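Structure ticket #2291
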Amino acid sequence: MKNQKIWHQTSKLNSQSQMPAIFLDKDGTLIENVPNNVAPQLIEMKIGAIEGLQILNPSC
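Resolution: structure written out below.
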């Protein structure tokens, strides 16, 4: 019975702290896909990427 009470408290805490998430692959989605690109100055955002991210997170 004690274990059930602890599990209920833990699951309640976890369900309250969960947030929706979206996972994006940056290469070819947010930035142009340049193979083996290790130079930050060469990164170019894809058209509409910034606006799309702002839709996903309007507080930015």
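Closing remark: The two ends are 46 Å apart (CA to CA).
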